[in-house]
Amino acid sequence: xxxPDFQTVMRPLLATVADGVEHRMVDIRAALADYFxxxxxxLSAELPSGxxxxxxNRVGWAxxxxxRTGLLERPRRxxxxxxxxxxxxxxxxxxxVDLKVLAEFEEFHEFRRAKSDARTSATPPVAxxxxxxxxxxxxxxxxxxxxxxxxxxxxxxxxxRIHEQTxxxxxxxx
Length: 174
Known about the structure:
Oligomer: single chain
CATH superfamily: Winged helix-like DNA-binding domain superfamily/Winged helix DNA-binding domain
Radius of gyration: 21 Å
Strand order of the largest sheet: 1-3-2
Number of helices: 9
Number of strands: 3
Structural class: mainly alpha
Order of helices and strands: HEHHHEEHHHHH
């Protein structure tokens, strides 16, 4: 099985910590890897940037969203426990917990606004469409995808400009 997207990880993650005790992140990842029956190859797959393991990144983002929405609490660094709200969501959504479910809570919208505000306050205003997380890709994967698209467009534009030039342009340019 391929590594699931971060939204697919959310409900199994909540189920993993449903006993109400504290769980270390390393144990959560191990339980989820077993749940999804991931191979060593799956677990060693990296993001296109090469900065992180895909599975760890997706579990991390699922955990962040669940924590920021109040479904998980973090008593200590890298240690999580389900909240009463998390238990309620787990019971009321037996098939899937994803961003649509989290959108029921004001904390989710505050978290999304805070991310958006931080992004816009640090940069001058530019008309850029916000990437959708409904695709199941983490923000890093969306950035990598956007980078690859921009790079491909730049390469195509550059090739077009080169093809427009005469041979004399190349002889005189250097």
